[in-house]
């Protein structure tokens, strides 16, 4: 059972019929643990393909334009290993962020029988999402692209074709970090390569013609600079959200009403999977698995009915959420 801060209160309908739980279809039989999660969204799939294409383009330019033609074999081997390792970790993190269930709430569990089984007491309330017909735990939000309610949803990212939630935020953070690192690494190598080619004959510093080499390097420089800025900003905002235990959606809806936070270090450990270790940077290592919400976790306790009557939320979430409350009447 959860205690809701007053700023989370919404305009609550006192009539249980408002939920219309009889319109909900019972949830399907849960699939096996580890079942692959994939969102069939055309825009998201296209963005994911573009992401892989851009990384592979950078791989092509770095290897076949700068490193392989270089006469400094030690320089080529070291930078080739570092760049390929970072690129592999970036793509692996991208796959994990895209194919991991971000924390979807069971769909269709707001049935009449299930709500009656909760045996709500006076002052207790449950919220229902009319879009996916699920009872929403605290801090869950509905995603119109995934068509599900996601626990601790931060935002929906088309570049990973998935929501960023409590189960895959670690992979998204690693993805932005590794993309920023390979972008920075590529920009540094482009700078050294230009200096090298200016000092020597352009025909000797690349296996391509000088005009082709210049075009490929300029495109890589533009791509690296753009993604370095974008992913660095995303990485910073995600780390800030984790340390403050406040998602992007919660920050937008806060409106100068601060919410209670947990310890920042504890939140970081829960996101990345325990105490600090190399597994924090490993996209194949799972974060701390959150406890499966019980039926009691779906029931929220209001501190006073008078507060519930007066507090209203003018945001769009008010239109998307319904609730049922048991009173002393």
Radius of gyration (CA) equals: 25 Å
Note the overall shape: elongated
Beta-strand portion reads 5-15%
Instruction: Indicate the structural class.
Output: alpha+beta
Give the number of helices: 9
Quaternary organization: single chain
Transmembrane segments: 45-67, 73-92, 171-194, 214-235
Keywords: Acyltransferase, Membrane, Transferase, Transmembrane, Transmembrane helix
InterPro entries: Palmitoyltrfase_DHHC, PFA4/ZDH16/20/ERF2-like
Main location: membrane
How would you characterize this protein structure?
It is found in: Membrane. It comes from Gorilla gorilla gorilla (Western lowland gorilla). It catalyses: L-cysteinyl-[protein] + hexadecanoyl-CoA = S-hexadecanoyl-L-cysteinyl-[protein] + CoA. It is a multi-pass membrane protein. The chain crosses the membrane at residues 45-67, 73-92, 171-194, 214-235. The protein contains nine helices and nine strands. It is elongated, with a radius of gyration of 25 Å. It starts with a strand and ends with a strand. The model is unreliable at 1-19, 29-33 and 304-329 (pLDDT under 50). With 329 residues, the chain is an alpha+beta fold. The strands form three sheets. Strands 1, 2, 3, 8 and 9 form a five-stranded mixed sheet that branches. Strands 4-5 form a two-stranded antiparallel ribbon. Strands 6-7 form a two-stranded antiparallel sheet. The chain has helices at 42-67, 73-99, 112-117, 169-199, 210-244, 248-254, 264-272, 305-310, 317-320, and strands spanning 2-3, 124-129, 134-136, 140-143, 148-151, 155-157, 162-164, 300-301, 322-325. Helices cover 46% and strands 9% of the residues. The protein has a domain at 36-103 and 153-291.
């Amino acid at each position: 059972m959860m205690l809701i801060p007053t700023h989370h209160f919404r305009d609550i309908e006192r009539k249980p019929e408002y939920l219309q739980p009889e319109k909900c279809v019972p949830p399907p039989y849960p699939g096996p643990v580890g079942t692959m999660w994939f969102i069939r969204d055309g825009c998201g799939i296209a963005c994911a393909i573009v992401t892989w294409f851009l990384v592979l383009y950078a791989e092509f330019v770095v290897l076949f334009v700068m490193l392989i033609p270089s006469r400094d074999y030690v320089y080529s081997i070291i930078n080739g290993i570092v760049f390929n390792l970072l690129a592999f970790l970036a793509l692996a993190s991208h796959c994990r962020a895209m194919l991991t269930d971000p924390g979807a709430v069971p769909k269709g569990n707001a049935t009449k029988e299930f709500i009656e089984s909760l045996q709500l007491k006076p002052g207790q309330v449950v919220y229902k999402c009319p879009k996916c017909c699920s009872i929403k735990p605290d801090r869950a939000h509905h995603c119109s692209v995934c068509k599900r309610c996601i626990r601790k949803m931060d935002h929906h990212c088309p570049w990973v074709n998935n929501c960023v939630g409590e189960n895959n935020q670690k992979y998204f953070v690693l993805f932005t970090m590794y993309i920023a690192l390979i972008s920075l690494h590529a920009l540094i190598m482009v700078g050294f390569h230009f200096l090298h080619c200016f000092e020597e004959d352009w025909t000797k510093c690349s296996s391509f013609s000088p005009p082709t080499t210049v075009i490929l390097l300029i495109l890589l420089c533009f791509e690296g600079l753009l993604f370095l800025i974008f992913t660095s900003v995303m990485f910073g905002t995600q780390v800030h959200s984790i340390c403050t235990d406040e998602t992007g959606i919660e920050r937008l809806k806060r409106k100068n009403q601060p919410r209670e936070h947990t310890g920042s270090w504890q939140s970081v450990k829960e996101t990345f999977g325990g105490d600090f270790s190399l597994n924090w940077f490993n996209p194949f290592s799972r974060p701390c698995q959150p406890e499966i919400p019980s039926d009691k976790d779906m029931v929220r306790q209001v501190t006073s009915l008078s507060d519930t009557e007066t507090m209203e939320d003018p945001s769009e979430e008010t239109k998307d959420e319904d609730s049922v409350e048991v009173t002393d009447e």
